[in-house]
Structures are given as structure tokens and as C-alpha cells.
Amino acid sequence: MPDRLEETVARTASRREILEGPIIRTMFKLAWPLMISSLLHYLYNMADTFWVGHLPVSENASAVAGLQIAGPVIFFLMAFAFGFNSGGLALVSQYMGAHRKKEANTAAAKTLSLSIVFGLFIMVTGVIFSPALLRLLTSDPAVARAGTVYTRIIFIGMPFEFVAVAYAQVMAAYGDTITPMLVNLTTVLINIVLDPFMIFGWGPFARMTVAGAAVATIVCQAIAAVISLVILFRGRHGLRVSWRDLLPDWFWYRRILKIGLPASIGVSGTSFGFLVLMGIIGRVPNATVALSAYGIGDRFINISFVAIDGLSLAISTMVGHALGGDLRKRANSVVWTGTALMFGMLVGEGTLLRVFTPWLFRAFIPTQPAIINEGILFMSLFLPSIPFFGIVNGVQSAFQGSGHNTPPMIMQLVRLWGLRVPLSWFFGFALHMGSRGIWTGMLISNVLAAVLALVFLTTVDWHHKVIERSPSAAGEVFGGETPDLLPVPAEPQV
What Cα–Cα distance (Å) separates residue 417 from each residue in 192, 430, 431? Predict the structure, then answer.
């Protein structure tokens, strides 16, 4: 198959579509596999919570609460390294927009190489330090014990997780979002099947409860990592790397780290903020009930973010391609259209989720009426704020696609440390409102964060690209042929 035809088959949307196609249609063409991938990712956690919630009544409340406090600890320890993937995403997407596939391949390989190094470091760090962090979040020994068992096993599989995530991001930056989706689909289905066998001890498996949920997850992460590497080494889906390409290269590492450092600071600062927020929730009088209700409700809300996650990465990809092709007006239209679209979608999804909240909680933890009632309270107060998070996501995607990650870093830190954490503490403890006050503080923080994001979008210049200029690169990549793009395509209709 000729290279160009093979590339077109592999990509979700062609380079011409990304740069010239109708914005909303192209956005969804890129985003729908990302949406499914995001949904599948959340199903990992949903499956764990669902099955653990059906343990005997003497175990399920502390087990679900243990999974909930484990999440922020895992996110906190891996967040700083994960943030550097944004540097690779910006480089790959902008090189593709500039018709420089050779450099895009190299950027993808070095992003993956760096992710493997980070994954090994986080594995060791997490196994050693996660128990101490968990003990800071709760005074309930049963909850801390369940969280410790789960996190230590999850961190053992961290190198696999880093490989799979880096692969999905560089492929999305290239323009292929279908292949990572298929990898996720395979592994999530395996995880959903394995969970009850390992948690309850069905068939040949021992009864492992919370540990079983973690073991099933890392088995599937390992499968995803192996499949991802095989696809990249064969190069049949656009990007191609070899074992030699994965060798350390400090020139490329410095480029990726320099672009991604602000994002890493922002993500790690955000994750630490969520860790502190979890500690605040863990100090209310009904801590186990509040943590369990928040954990289940948070997973439902994450499901409503499936479309937003896909659209956010699609916006970053389209912005990167547009700026790489010197189409600033196109990049601006993509951001405003995508942000408005996400806000409207979350209004509808939040309304629908509120209608089904009581039924969903009863399905997940049917033997705990106190948790069900607290969950309904949490969702009633917090759901009206989630459309504003769509605005924040849209603005951050603009900066990430352009490779300018300092404004998103500031937005993330202010949203958590300047707004959510202090407001949750103020309403929850200073005003003695308990868990109701914490949910209220979270509501207000999302609204104010959206206002801040719009201020950044309209006052900070994010339209200049981060790749070096190379006027002859397009001809080199295509063997001297004329690229299949107009130099300045007409602005498409939305």
C-alpha cells in the first residue's frame, strides 16, 4: 500500500480535514474514538467500585471509601510525570500540521521513551510512600487498610500505565484516535470480566476483595502496553518507532520537558489539591459516609465528562495542526466553537444525571441508605457547576495545543488552591456546614474558575507555535512533491 494511502486509512481525520474541514464535524470525527476511550477508562474505576460495593455489608463501606482515598494518592504521585505528555502532544501535532512527519515520529518516540523512565520511577515511589499518604487522609483504620492494599498493587503496574497513556496521546496528536480506542476496548472488557472473579473468588481464583480489583487492573494495563508497543514498532497506523528510537536523547528530552514543565506543575499541584480536599472530607463527622458518597458520585460525574475529554484532546490536536500550518484564525475558531459546544453538552448531561441520581446510588451500594442520601445531596449541589468546567477545559486545550502551558498551570493551581480547597474548608468547618458546606464550596469554585479561564483566553496570546521554522521541510518529507494542502485554506463553515 502506498505510504500516503496507508496514512489516510490509519488516521481518524486526514490532515486536510483537520486544517480545512468544518470545525464541529472534524472535531467529532477526532473526538468520538477519544470519547469511547475515555468512557472505557472510567469503566475501569466504575467496575472496581461496583463490584467492591457488593461485598458483604460489614466490608463494603470501608472498601468503597478506601478506593476513593486511593484515587487522589495515585493521581498525586503520578501527576507530575504525566503532565510532560503535553509537551510531546504539542510537538507531534504541530510537526504534522507543518508536514514534517520525520520529526513527528521522533517526537513521539522520545515522548514514549521518557514515559517509560517516569513510569519506573513512579512505581518505586508509589509503593514506598503511598501508605503514609493514605494514613493522613483518614482516621478510620479499615479505610486506610483497604486503600493501602489497592494503591500498592496499582503502583506495581505503573510502567504499563505510562506506556499506554503516552501511546494514546501521541497517536491522537498524529490524528489517529481509533486505534487507541480499540486497544482500550479490548483491555477494559477483560478487566470487567476479571473483576468479580478476583474480588469474590469465583472459579479458580482466590477471594482477594480490594486486592483483586487492583490485580485485574494491572493485568489489563500490561496487555494494553504490549499491544501499544507492537503497533508502534510495526508502524502500520501512521507513526513508527523502533527500539533504537527509544534510547535516551537529552536534546529531545529537554524540549519535551521544557514545554511540558508548566503542565506538570499544574497537574501535580491540582492533584495535591485534590489530596487535601479528600483530607478535608475525611475530617467531617460522617467521614466514611461522605467519602463513599463522594467517591460514587465522582465516578458518575466522570462518566458525564466522557464527551468533554474527547473534545478537549480534539481541540488540542486541531489547534496544534492549525498553528503548525500558520492558520491562527482557524485555531481561534476551533477554540471558541469547541468551548461553547462543551458547555452546552454538560448542561444537558448534568440535568439527565440529576434525574437518575437516586437510582444510580441504590444500584451501586444498595445496603447503605446513609450513603445513598449523602450522594443525592452531593449531586444536587455540585452538578449545576459542571458546565462551567467545560469552559475551563476548552481554554486549557487551546493553550496545550499551542504548547504554552504556563496559563493552564496558573488556572489549575488557582482553581484548586485559590478557590476549591479554601472555599470547601470555609463552608464546611468555619461555617459549621459539614459535608453540605464542602459540596457548596466545590460548586462555587467551578463557576469562578470558568470566569478566570475566559480572562486568560481573551488577554493572553496563545497563537504562536513552539516548533522551529523549516521552510523546506515539507518538500523533504514528501520527496519533493507539492503537499496536498492549500497554503492558506479558506476558513470553513462550522
Answer: 36, 17, 19
- pTM for the whole thing? 0.69
What is the rounded CA–CA span in Å between residue 129 and residue 423? 29
Distances, alpha carbon 122 to alpha carbons 154, 205, 427, in Å: 11, 29, 35
Cα 192 to Cα 490: distance, rounded to the nearest angstrom: 47
In a domain, 255, yes or no: yes
Q: What is the pLDDT of residues 311-366, one digit of tens each?
A: 998 898 899 888 888 888 999 999 999 999 999 999 999 999 999 999 989 988 88
Q: How far is CA 334 from the centre of its chain?
A: 20
- CA neighbours closer than 13 Å in the CB half-sphere of residue 212: 23
In a domain, 492, yes or no: no
In a domain, 298, yes or no: yes
Q: Within its chain, how far is the Cα of 15 from the centroid?
A: 24
CA distance 292 to 60: 10
Distances (CA, A) of 128 to 133, 244, 491: 10, 32, 54
Contact 95, 324 (CB under 8 A): yes
C-alpha cell read off for 388: 462551567
Q: Domains in the chain: how many in total?
A: 1
Cβ neighbourhood burial of 314 (10 Å; 0-12, 13-18, 19+): buried
Integer Cα distance of 392 and 143 in angstroms: 33
| Distance (Å, whole) CA 256 – CA 403 | 10
Q: Which residue segment(s) compose the domain that 146 sits in? A: 9-466
Closest CA to 260 of 101, 118, 121: 118
* 396-455 per-position pLDDT tens digit: 999 988 888 888 889 989 999 999 999 999 999 999 999 999 999 999 999 999 999 999
**Measured between alpha carbons, how far is 36 from 42 in angstroms, rounded to an integer?**
10
Q: What distance in Å separates the CA atoms of residue 11 and residue 13, rounded to the nearest whole number?
A: 5
The mean pLDDT value for 48-56 works out to 83
How long a stretch of residues is the chain?
Answer: 494
315 close to 335: Cβ distance less than 8 angstroms: yes
Q: By the 8 A CB rule, do 224 and 160 touch?
A: yes
Q: Does 483 reside within a domain?
A: no
